[in-house]
Specification:
Length: 170
């Protein structure tokens, strides 16, 4: 069953969709009781999904780990299983993104190297752009080689706020 979890935050409403039957993608946190399949920040809640308060099962775990992240525990995100479709290279980029330490952003070029293909900078950037599970797969931790913020689905201001939050974790 696909469920939706809604969590208020300083960045607006965080809305996660998860499937209690899905398993985490290989290389991600081992999820035996579900996986997050998408995450949105500050967007309207989709009514076609059954609402879930996060008070039991996998939803409770996701809520607990996201709140722990917001309270300065960046490794809490690694305890959330995720599942999203993508090519083998995109999967390797998403796995690499989960290894970027909070407060230590890397460039798209560095991300391509971390994913195993130094020449695939544009493909690494494309994996960031198509990431359906931001925050948990922290594409906001990837910046341009010149140190500028770069693009982000919810805008450069949101990306800057997330980077600022995580810089304070250290």
């Amino acid at each position: 069953m696909v469920l939706q979890l809604v969590i208020p935050s300083n960045f607006g409403v965080i809305s996660c969709r998860f499937d209690e039957a899905a398993e985490g993608v290989d290389g991600y946190a081992q999820a035996t009781n579900g996986a997050v399949t998408s995450l949105k920040i500050g967007e309207p809640i989709a009514q076609e999904f059954k609402m879930h308060s996060g008070t039991c099962g996998f939803g409770s775990d996701v809520r607990t780990h996201l709140l722990a992240w917001m309270n300065g525990e960046p490794e809490a995100l690694l305890r959330i299983g995720v599942a999203q479709p993508g090519t083998p290279f995109k999967q390797s980029v998403w796995r690499a993104m989960r290894q970027i330490p909070a407060g230590a952003p890397v460039s798209y070029a560095q991300l391509a190297v971390m994913a195993g293909n130094a020449g695939a900078v544009r493909a690494a950037a494309s994996a960031c752009a198509t990431n359906q599970v931001p925050l948990i797969v922290p594409c906001h931790r990837v910046i341009k080689s010149d140190g500028s913020i770069g693009n982000y689905y919810w805008g450069s201001e949101m990306k800057q706020q997330l980077l600022h939050l995580e810089a304070g974790f250290n």
